[in-house]
Specification:
The protein is an alpha+beta fold and 175 residues long. 17% of the residues lie in helices and 43% in strands. It is built from 3 helices and 12 strands; from the N terminus they run βαββββαβαββββββ. It has helices at 19-32, 77-84, 104-110; strands at residues 7-14, 39-43, 46-53, 56-63, 68-74, 89-92, 115-119, 126-129, 138-145, 150-157, 160-167, 171-173. The strands form 3 sheets. The chain has a 5-stranded antiparallel beta sheet, with no helix packed on it. A 4-stranded antiparallel beta sheet has the order 2-5-1-6, with helices on one face. The protein has a 3-stranded mixed beta sheet with strand order 4-3-7, with no helix packed on it. A hairpin with a 4-residue loop joins strand 9 (138-145) and strand 10 (150-157). It is elongated. It starts with 6 loop residues before the first strand and ends with a strand.
Length: 175
Amino acid sequence: MAENSEIKWYVVHTYSGYENKVKVNLEKAVENNGMQDLITEVKIPVEEAVEIKNNKRKVVQRKLLPGYVLVKMLMTNETWYVVRNTRGVTGFVGAGNKATPLSETDFASLFEPRTQTRVDIQPGDTVRILSGLFENFSGRVVSVDDQTQTVNVMVQMFKQETPVELSFDEVVREE
């Protein structure tokens, strides 16, 4: 059995769209070669994202690192060879021919819980406000900010347009 301190996470580059196949093929190769104590885990980092299209919310899984797979392993000539020669793998991430392990903090940051919402609302669209002070008001979208998950809307109030910043889940696009 390998020392736990020597087993580290490595990033493996794959052909785009082959991440799941690489994971399955690598797990099979590990099992066939009896290397379960040397290559202990294979992960594809994903996040849950909420997409709102046609006013319907849908939770989807999105890859955080398309084209990459994480492998927890003890780096030896044999393990390097098995991973490197897995179908769909193009190489390890690192300088030259030397694979660089991920730090524990970098690995942990990949798996921090986060939910991102994407909406099909564009500047110029008309939206109805679902909650808050302006509930049931309609307004024209001025801007959409995916980073802060907000939309800026101009609401007609007392014959004057008033700018309002709302979160994605406080508005719905009107047809």
